[in-house]
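Final report, closing paragraph on structural work. Over the funding period we assembled a curated collection of sequence-structure pairs, and we close with a single example.
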Amino acid sequence: MRRGDGVVLQLPGYDRKYRVPHDLAHYATERTFEMAGGVFGSIAAGAVFSNMRVLGGRPRHDAAARSRRVLDGCKQSLGLAELLAGMVHHAVETGIPEQAPALVRKAWGALETGEPPWPGTRIAEAARLLTELAADFEAAGTVRVTWPDHLVPAAPTPKGVRRGRRGRT
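Its predicted structure, as stored:
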């Protein structure tokens, strides 16, 4: 992954027992549902998960602290992204992508009351995108995608850091 700040990261997949890589499910689901605080938005904002490694570029001087702040700030949305991406992944992996809307609704119902904020057509769109990405990955062994800038969450401000000129003479 090449971030906007020039840092190149490796995110190894541990799911090679599946035909469809789980990380692609995150991309398809988070992109289609416009989830800024999921895996890909968090990485774009500066998060580095424990299984990632820096391959190139120059990390910020405060990269580790920024990563912790982003991960802490996105904790709830990361959990939701994991759940939803898991449902879309399951539907595509089992060869029944049309199940995705029902699976997502069921998973949503375990967390919230009412219907999910995405209509069935949007959920089906995520499954369609994942199916296309998986086919490209199978054919080429790699997939090139771009994460949109508008889906990058702002990094939380460090605690104890004062902003502005107040108190200066």
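The mean pLDDT is 91. The chain is about 50% helix and 5% strand. We thank the funder for supporting this effort.
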